[in-house]
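Q: Dabb family protein, please. Structure only.
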Amino acid sequence: MIVHLASFTWTPEVTAADVAGLTESLTAMAAAVPELRYYQCGENVRLRPGGADYGVLALVDDQAGLDAYLDSEAHKQVYADWLSWMIDTRHAVQLESDGLSVARSEQPEN
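A: Structure for Dabb family protein:
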């Protein structure tokens, strides 16, 4: 499986209403892309200082699924309608995952 993570920092003119519209559009887009096994998007809840304004997590089976998602007409439309003018900076990373692992460090017994 492939985990795709994207983070965005907005331009100063982006409003809360714009972010709400983007979130609604991304959620609808995700429902229309069958290659997406899991999808989550939303505003940074700012539990730590710094960071981006918004994030997206997409889980797909493989590179073909990632390409199908990112190259889909639905994704292109959301980009044209919203992201193209909202983004100041964007960062993305893709990670290989078995979809189940959770890293845990073993604590030595005292």
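A: Brief note, in case it's useful. The first strand starts at residue 2 and ends at 10.
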